[in-house]
Amino acid sequence: DPRTEVGPLPPETPLPEELLWEAREEGAQVFQVPLPPLPGRGQRFYPPTLISGVAPTSRCLREPVLGPVLVLLPVRGPSEAVAVASALPHAAAAALWAQDITVALDTADRLPQGLVSLNSLDLLDPSTGGTDLDEALREFGCPPWEQPPEVEEPLSPSVTLDDPGDPELAQAVATARGAAPGWGRLPGASRARVLRGAAAALPGGPGTPEDGDRSDTGGSLRGALLRWAERAERAGGTVQEMPGGRALLTRRPLGVLGVAWVWPRLLALELLLPALALGNAVVVVAPSGGAGAAQRLRK
């Protein structure tokens, strides 16, 4: 309720006394506003608390604290602020203040939180999730996608990006990780120009049966490149009116995606090009039968 400044904690929520005690033991300063005696459920009201002088590894920063508790951690610039915010495990929202709107938008874009307020705190009530949860869509009036069915025993991948098992694949993953930030930060129009350049560089003529092109029912690779170049230009953010200001809704790429090459042309049309157009870096593993098409696509 935005009209409530300090409300009671839920009955099942423990008071953060242990975290405050540990912060004092680590040398932090704890400031609390005394509350007057309150009848009834007054014991569930916790006084507004400020903690300063803590280390970035302190428990009060690593664990979520339910209640009016604020931890003050000075930083020396936007880059250090982004690094500190990226290390917080449970932060769903952030707020930053800046006089330069360019610096503010650039810093907000680098923060990992799903909701960032500029020069304000309470324009939107943050959801419990972040950039990776569908619940964040409720803030903009859109219902979340249908939740996938629950799996009794979740499948574990046989190959992970941290340990792909193949030296060449590990090198490809490292290269993709290095290219992902720069490619993902490009505007959609810039990515569209790259895709159109790739379409212009493709040789003419249909593919060979050895490359699996007989399965291509969605059009040529050149046509797919041009279509996704057009979609990349339209996949930018949107500005939405809201009480007290405006909300800028942006879309972030997932990062590095691994793709299995089943049919070369179908893969390029259905998986590879959308991932690239939306700012992701892609690692494609092609079998020996698709090596020719993979080399042409690489060029």
Automatic annotation (TrEMBL):
Residue spans crossing the bilayer: none
Pfam family, one: Aldedh
GO MF term list: oxidoreductase activity, acting on the aldehyde or oxo group of donors, NAD or NADP as acceptor
Superkingdom of the source species: Eukaryota
Xref: InterPro entries: Ald_DH/histidinol_DH (IPR016161), Ald_DH_C (IPR016163), Ald_DH_N (IPR016162), Aldehyde_DH_dom (IPR015590)
Domain Aldehyde dehydrogenase residues, every copy: 3-126
UniProt cross-references to SUPFAM superfamilies, sorted A to Z: ALDH-like
PANTHER family, A to Z: ALDEHYDE DEHYDROGENASE-RELATED (PTHR11699)
Protein name: A16A1 dehydrogenase
Source organism: Agelaius phoeniceus (Red-winged blackbird)
